[in-house]
Amino acid sequence: MNKKERTEKIIETLKSLYPNVKCSLNYETPLQMLIATQMSAQCTDARVNIVTETLFKKYPDAESFACANYDELCEDIRSIGFFRNKAKNIILCCRRLIEHYGGEVPDTMEELLTLPGTGRKTANLVLGDIFHKPAVVVDTHCMRLSRRTGLTKQETPEKIEADLKKLVPPEEQLGLCHRFVSHGRLVCTARSPKCEICEINEFCKTYSTQKKGK
Ligand code: SF4
Hints:
By secondary structure, the protein is mainly α. The chain folds into 2 domains: 3-21 and 136-213, Endonuclease Iii, domain 2 (Orthogonal Bundle), CATH 1.10.1670.10; 30-130, Hypothetical protein, domain 2 (Endonuclease III, domain 1, Orthogonal Bundle), CATH 1.10.340. The protein is built from 12 helices and no strands. The chain has helices at residues 3-17, 30-39, 45-58, 62-66, 70-76, 83-101, 109-112, 120-130, 140-149, 157-167, 170-186, 205-213. The structure holds iron/sulfur cluster. The site of iron/sulfur cluster (SF4) has 14 residues, from helix 9 and helix 12.
């Protein structure tokens, strides 16, 4: 089976295993999605959801975040890792949204990357989940699974993103990344992957190499 065929099988199998995948952050508007995603770096989505439940009531739009008092915002998000830096970026990001985009979240990679606190992972998540554009979201699970399964040999998120963009049909990209997260949490975990019971093991490079070595 060549790489293209293995990729198709992986996409198909993960789709049947995890039919309804979505981002596990809670949000109602594009701005909330952007801010929740920025806050989720080095922090669990569950913790972010606890904080944003009250945060988004206190700061309902870009203007209220842009005018927020820095020390007060730090207190509001204190239980999140790197809260000082994140509070600073949230304020600067919302100021830029007001100054350049009428308080709305833009819908291109180039524009999203100009927003403080917004890297390619956050930008892709916004493009995919909010604007329904093709998007490859390379988080820790996507990196691990795409490398273990042999879909890429690259090591940096940018290069992995480029490889997956070439290999995976645009309409499947976001779904595959979300499913890598689900499968990475349940089966292909970082420390002890459960290869023997893994439903995609027959299409996985790591598994076939292990078997050959036995
Ligand atoms: S076979 Fe093992 S390494 Fe490959 S995807 Fe499954 S759990 Fe991960």
